[in-house]
Amino acid sequence: MVEVQLFFYFGIFLAIVGSIATAWGPGVNDPVVRTFNTEVASVGVCLVLLCYNHVLALLTLLATTVIITLILFRAIIRLEEMGADV
Amino acid sequence: MVMIPPYVPEAFITMYLPAIYAGLIVGFIGTMAIAMKREEIHILILTDLVGLAMIFVVSAVGTDLAEALILPGLVVELAETLAISEILITREMRIIEQDPRRNLSKSSSLFPQPFSANMEILTTAPNFIALVLIGYGIFLTGFTGGAVAGGGIVLYALSKKARGLPILMLDGIAGVSGIAWCLWIIGFLLFFVMPQYWLLSLFLAACGLLLKVASKVGLIGLLMREDIDRE
Known about the structure:
The structure holds 2 protein chains of 2 kinds. By secondary structure, chain A is mostly helical. Chain A contains 3 helices and no strands. The longest helix of chain A is centred in the last third of the chain and has 27 residues, at 55-81. Chain A is elongated and about 55 Å long. Chain B is mostly helical. In chain B, 76% of the residues lie in helices and 0% in strands. Classes of the chains: A mainly alpha, B mainly alpha. Chains A and B meet through α1, α2 and α3 of A and α2, α3, α4, α6 and α8 of B.
């Protein structure tokens, strides 16, 4: 059986790497790329919640991540259509 | 000295410090990036990172209390993102109105081109997935169920709108919020007045929260209606 700790530390690693990628990663001046990089950190948090047996929190995180991505894409597309500097 | 409740498993106690440090590191990265950026939309995306750091710190507690604190945090973060994105769009529109030299492009649709492939799965699958999501959300109740059911509603509205079809619009969706509050308050009151009916009051509060959160997420459908009316 694979240790739970392995998933826990891998989740922490993914979250930190994902947040660094979101903050200073390649091509983050495009807001779409930045939004996608947030997903990496989000997957790391999902792994950590899985290790803690927080099923409801995991489900809610998945659902809200999907909806927040939709909201952010809508805002990005509307702002770019209006010619704002994004 | 740190008070640790006796029912916290041993494994979670050893995982406490790494989780707290990871949360602090992620939060530090997020806030530093926010301090270094100028554009508001980037700051809005980076706010997500600070939310993830919040989840780390709270989940390090490792008991049901952590779960109970994460759920409203996530839903409030969702509402915040929605509100701030609306404020950003409105402000940009005001700037354009004051300065008409910048020409405003006519199309303001989320999907500019109507999708015209004629496949049967495109008409049946979104309805089915939305139905499954809404049903599962009603089964879950509470914050989680509200988010899942709201995701189903949004998926339905988006898939209809992407193909240029009319969406079923409910005008009184704001009134659902009042009913939800009434259910929640009745449940809360019943919990103290008649504690033997705790299961009933629990379900009243859970169904109230389900209606509340699902209707809040349904606000996205309301916003998209404004997009349609403008065209």
